[in-house]
């Protein structure tokens, strides 16, 4: 048996055992609940977080279990009726695991590959089902969150109330998206009940953070509610010269004059300071990562400022029609310096030659989505018909400069090296707009739900590149248009089992041109066949899902060596096939658990010479995880205590598309312990202490993607003291 499979078996068994035990425990609890209900007419249930799922894709959840969301259909739809693999990271999971990045937030979701670039606080780069979704798959409140080059919006987990995940091609509703699917980040919204929280944190690498979250009615007379969330952090990291400082503020207001009308304003501003590079030097002789920081602590600042403001409006016209409109304006500016050691000096092998650079990028985007929902019957058929039109306009500007820097001294690799100011060499300006119109009908007959949807998009992109030394200008204009669709069928049994089958497509316009042919790139297209089952155990807060999928992507972009440089070419085709299973529960006995396993086989069907028939780099066949959190009984000796623990398995993978070397498999462990001081005395009610650790055993192995090697992020421990009143 292959080594990686042998190492995987214990965790797979643990995941499957946890899933089986979960079903047995939940079934037993359901039987007890039925007995209690029959005996006294009442039963104990978990508190349900019910929010309006018609706007922004917010989640209705009970503990760890997502029940419904608008992410899968743009209308509030139960997960059991969504004919596609969908899951969620709920607000309770965020509280228990206290993630500090989006990657940590998503680490326990099935099929999500985080850590492919090791420790790197600059970007939230991740993959799903073998496809990169960093640029194409991140949405905010059901609206596209654009990104370009290094201008990728940073996402603060403390500003989220959850994440909805729709896997697979999803252009039928959302337009330009990739083959892997989309991750909808749900912003914290005003609550009708008063909420007050302040928190201080201290952690590894001199990490200091203070944060607050206030919400409730503005006054007792007006139907206006507010929320104000913010934090301030001063922190170093495991890499010298790479801080992780952040200031974040997010105001929100909701006006609800009647039950049929609602307007929510969502805003945010943040400033983040980190490093221009965080990578380790790769020895060209071996191609592997060393322990030497490849950057320059004296020339490695990266400051990113971003802001957004938008609204969600919903108005019920009558018993049949509801109108919604969501819109957002967002801006991002990143100013960074970087210095990178790339090879031994010819005269002194203890020195490493370096190259330095600087860039200034600005991204501005406007997104608006208008939709009309109608619910009506035609005979025995119940319809939820959705018609909409959305528009995205973005402008991206980049100034880039390259220069020289002193060599890195391997005998003192953390010493800063002075770098002279670097002038900008090129200026790139890109303007893009996308207009899409879509129609979807969810048709219900008895236990059957047929979902049929289609969309047509028009995209126009103009790119101007100026060589500032010669003042020469290159202009590329391209226009794309494409139809996307989805059809799916779901059957719901009386006992909570819901098998489904679906077919969906996606398209993604590509900016730039092929330097070999001087022709614009065609859009990247993908299609998926998926079959699965979802099981919501009766009278138990437990959801188990499983899916089989096949995804074909064509006209993908690849880097290919031509002469002494790499250029983008388009002649690729990828195929991803796999299986996923996930289980989530939050039981009345204080136990919450999430477990998942994903098998993914991603191959290059067409691509650069030497890669055809190979596996995509850093795409493991096996990913599995288990996280459990238990709150001890209030009347027992451990009253007030909560403990949690998790394990994340990442199977072996190839380090490049040529498949000449491999990344080893690894298991990373996380842990949590908390204490509620109200167990000592009621006068301490609302005061809680929590300590979270990620990569508990500090495993920091090399991980290589696209031929370049990084290192896993090491152990971090964060203590939090929280007070709610």
TrEMBL record:
Cellular localization per UniProt = Cell outer membrane
Q: Where is the TonB-dependent receptor-like beta-barrel domain?
A: 255-696
UniProt xrefs under Gene3D superfamilies = TonB-dependent receptor, beta-barrel domain, TonB-dependent receptor, plug domain
SUPFAM superfamilies to which the protein is assigned, alphabetical: Porins
Q: Which InterPro entries match?
A: Beta-barrel_TonB, Beta-barrel_TonB_sf, Plug_dom, Plug_dom_sf, TonB-dep_rcpt-like, TonB_sidphr_rcpt
> Any idea which UniProt keywords this protein has?
Cell outer membrane, Ion transport, Iron, Iron transport, Membrane, Receptor, Signal, TonB box, Transmembrane, Transmembrane beta strand, Transport
Report TM segments.
none
Any keyword Membrane?
Answer: yes
Residue ranges of every copy of the TonB-dependent receptor plug domain listed in the record: 81-181
Query: Hey, what's the signal peptide range on this chain?
Result: 1-23
Report how it sits in the membrane: Multi-pass membrane protein
Return the similarity comment: Belongs to the TonB-dependent receptor family.
Protein name, as recorded:
TonB-dependent siderophore receptor
- Species classification: Bacteria, Pseudomonadati, Pseudomonadota, Alphaproteobacteria, Hyphomicrobiales
């Amino acid at each position: 048996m292959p080594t990686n499979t042998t190492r995987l078996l214990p965790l797979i068994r643990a995941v499957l055992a946890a899933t089986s035990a979960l079903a047995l425990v939940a079934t037993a609890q359901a039987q007890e609940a039925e007995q209690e209900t029959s005996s006294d007419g009442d039963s104990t249930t978990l508190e349900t977080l019910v929010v309006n799922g018609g706007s922004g894709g917010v989640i209705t959840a009970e503990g760890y279990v997502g029940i419904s969301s608008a992410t899968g259909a743009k209308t509030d739809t139960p997960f059991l009726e969504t004919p596609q693999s969908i899951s969620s990271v709920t607000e309770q999971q965020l509280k228990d695991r206290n993630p500090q990045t989006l990657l940590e937030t998503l680490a326990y979701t099935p099929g999500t590959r985080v850590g492919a670039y090791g420790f790197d606080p600059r970007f939230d780069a991740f993959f799903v089902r073998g496809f990169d979704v960093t640029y194409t798959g991140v949405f905010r409140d059901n609206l596209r969150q654009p990104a370009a080059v290094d201008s990728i919006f940073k996402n603060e987990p403390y500003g989220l109330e959850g994440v909805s995940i729709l896997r697979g091609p999803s252009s039928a509703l959302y337009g330009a998206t990739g083959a892997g699917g989309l991750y909808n980040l749900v912003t914290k919204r005003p609550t009708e009940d008063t909420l007050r929280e302040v928190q201080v944190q201290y952690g590894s690498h001199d990490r200091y953070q203070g944060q607050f979250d206030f919400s409730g009615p503005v006054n007792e007379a007006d139907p206006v509610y507010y929320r104000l969330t913010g934090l301030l952090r001063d922190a170093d990291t495991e890499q010298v010269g790479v801080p992780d400082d952040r200031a974040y503020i997010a105001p929100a207001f909701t006006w609800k004059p009647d039950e049929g009308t609602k307007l929510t304003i969502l805003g945010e501003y943040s400033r983040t300071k980190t490093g221009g590079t965080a990578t380790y030097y790769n020895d060209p002789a071996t191609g592997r990562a060393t322990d030497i920081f490849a950057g320059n602590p004296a020339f490695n600042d990266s400051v990113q400022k971003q802001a957004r403001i938008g609204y969600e409006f919903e108005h019920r016209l009558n018993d049949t029609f509801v109108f919604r409109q969501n819109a957002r304006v967002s801006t991002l500016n990143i100013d960074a310096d970087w210095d990178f050691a790339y090879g031994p000096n010819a005269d002194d092998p203890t020195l490493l030659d370096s190259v330095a650079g600087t860039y200034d990028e600005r991204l501005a985007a406007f997104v608006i989505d208008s939709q009309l929902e109608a619910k009506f019957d035609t005979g025995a058929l119940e319809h939820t018909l959705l018609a909409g039109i959305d528009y995205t306009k973005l402008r991206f500007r980049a100034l880039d400069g390259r220069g020289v820097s002193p060599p890195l001294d391997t005998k003192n690799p953390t010493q800063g090296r002075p770098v002279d100011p670097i002038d900008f060499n090129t200026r790139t300006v890109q303007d893009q707009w996308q207009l899409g119109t879509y129609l979807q009908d969810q048709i219900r007959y008895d236990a059957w739900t047929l979902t049929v949807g289609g969309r047509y998009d028009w995209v126009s992109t103009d790119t101007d590149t100026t060589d500032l030394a010669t003042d020469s200008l290159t202009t590329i204009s391209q226009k794309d248009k494409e139809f996307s669709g989805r059809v799916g069928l779901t059957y719901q049994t009386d006992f909570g089992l819901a098998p489904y089958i679906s077919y969906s497509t996606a398209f993604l316009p590509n900016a730039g041109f092929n330097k070999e042919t001087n022709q614009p790139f065609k859009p990247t297209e993908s299609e998926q066949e998926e079959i699965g089952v979802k099981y919501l155990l009766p009278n138990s807060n437990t959801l188990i899902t499983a899916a089989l999928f096949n995804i074909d992507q064509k006209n993908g972009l690849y880097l290919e060596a031509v002469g002494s440089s790499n250029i983008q070419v388009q002649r690729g085709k990828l195929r991803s096939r796999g299986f996923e299973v996930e289980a989530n529960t939050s039981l009345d006995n204080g136990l919450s658990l999430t477990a998942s396993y994903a098998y993914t086989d991603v191959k290059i069907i067409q691509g650069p010479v030497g890669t055809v028939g190979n596996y995509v780099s850093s795409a493991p066949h096996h990913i599995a995880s288990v996280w459990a959190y238990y709150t001890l009984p209030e009347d027992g000796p451990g009253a007030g205590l909560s403990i949690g623990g998790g394990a994340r398995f990442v199977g072996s993978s190839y380090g490049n598309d040529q498949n000449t070397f491999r990344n080893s498999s690894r298991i990373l462990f996380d842990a949590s312990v908390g204490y509620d001081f109200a167990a000592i005395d009621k006068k301490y009610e609302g005061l809680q202490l929590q300590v979270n650790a990620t990569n508990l055993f500090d495993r920091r192995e090399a991980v290589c993607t696209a031929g370049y090697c990084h290192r896993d992020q090491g152990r971090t421990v964060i203590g939090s003291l929280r007070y709610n009143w």
